[in-house]
Automatic annotation (TrEMBL):
Enzyme Commission number(s) from the entry: 3.1.3.12
InterPro entries: HAD-like_sf, HAD-SF_hydro_IIB, HAD_sf, OTSB-like, Trehalose_PPase
Cofactor(s), names only, from the UniProt record: Mg(2+)
GO molecular function list: magnesium ion binding; trehalose-phosphatase activity
First and last residue of the signal peptide: none
Family classification: Belongs to the trehalose phosphatase family.
CDD domains: HAD_TPP
A Pfam family this chain is assigned to: Trehalose_PPase
Function: Removes the phosphate from trehalose 6-phosphate to produce free trehalose.
Gene3D superfamilies attached to this UniProt entry: HAD superfamily/HAD-like, Trehalose-6-phosphate phosphatase related protein, domain 2
Protein name as it appears in the record: Trehalose 6-phosphate phosphatase
Amino acid sequence: MPAPLPLPAPPLPGVDDRWALFLDVDGTLLDFTDHPDQVCVDSRLRELVEDLYGALDGALALVSGRSLDDLDDLFGHPPWAMAGLHGLELRGADGRYRGVHIGASRRSLVRDIANTVAAGLPGVLMEDKGMAVALHCRTSPQQFERLREQVQSVLPSLAGYEMQPGNMVIELKPEGMDKGSAVAALMSAWPFRGRQPVYVGDDLTDEHGFATANLESGLSIRVGSREPSLARYTLPEPAAARAWLFRVLHALKHGALSHAHSSASGGNA
Ligand SMILES: O=P(O)(O)OC[C@H]1O[C@H](O[C@H]2O[C@H](CO)[C@@H](O)[C@H](O)[C@H]2O)[C@H](O)[C@@H](O)[C@@H]1O
């Protein structure tokens, strides 16, 4: 098969553009760490997202595999819209919550099964996210295929759940929602409605977000080099994504002049 054509760097918003920005968290805004609890949102990043939120009149959302509680802790209970657990939890720009509900006994069954899988695979870490669980192998990447097989083999005992592979992780989550559906749901309401979706993400789960952005004549931006991807633009790593977002903010605040300058100077950082 021929190698895929290299993707271009994303543009900046022009004066007449009305973007709605959808941002994945791990691997996009944040660099990966060995353990999910080791990440931290520094004040510069927090301010950047806050300023983008203001410059876009509120049309900004985080779209993550983390839970809303986790995102609230990381970002300090922000006012912007957020999709957690790949869209299973959704908090709109008006602060209203919509989410899937899974009862305590089901959650505990999923947790028990995931713990058993992790116990049989040295180096695999179980992250309990409530109605979903993540089985991480970042410190033991050689376990990934065995982990995938093990999770596949327990799926029949978990009706209504599906397997979601990601970057050094296999998740077990309730079926029926993904990041693309979350973006579509947010786009149907104020302040997103009528704007152009711009989705930035790195992982397999973000492919759903890219598909929705592409369908709605938006921009799909892959962070990293994972292939294949539906994304039409790329940025090499989270640092480049953050640098591009600073330039987006500048363009939103200062309009066409900075856009022309940024296009002419090229690069992402
Ligand atoms: O959709 P995202 O915001 O990208 O969240 C996806 C998963 O991110 C976290 O795991 C990933 O980041 C960890 C910290 O860097 C890393 O240790 C792990 O290997 C990555 O898979 C989070 O822990 C998961 O719950 C999210 O689903």
